[in-house]
Write a structure and sequence with these properties.
Elements (H helix, E strand, L loop, with lengths): L1 H17 L23 H12 L5 H18 L3 H22 L3 H19 L3
Helix pairs in contact: 3-4
Length: about 130
Amino acid sequence: MLWLERIAEERISAAIQRGEFDDLPGKGSPIAEEHGWQWIAPELRMAYRLLKNAGYVPEEVSLLREIQDVQTLIRACTEPDQENPLRRRLTILLQRLGDTRGGNLLLQEDYCRRVAERLGSAGSGR
């Protein structure tokens, strides 16, 4: 990789000598760090930035977006025969998301619901 860095440095130096960077906005001022990058190790920031600029989205983020889209479609359904395939799709997406997080989200959601119900019934004096 040393030879690649050397070639890059030579090309950058030549471009500076030709004045190709003289008219760039913000010349001479430090590059502002994007919010949230301080938690990423300095040696990984460039790789993360490249992935972000290339449009890469982590699988968990794309799953969350798709889950939200399917939930919106389910709420907009007017007929049960349209809703059933969407509910099956939602179940599959939730299972995939749970796999990426190391557990079954459907079981976690059911557990949280039951705990909330018990806490609610305990608070109401039953």
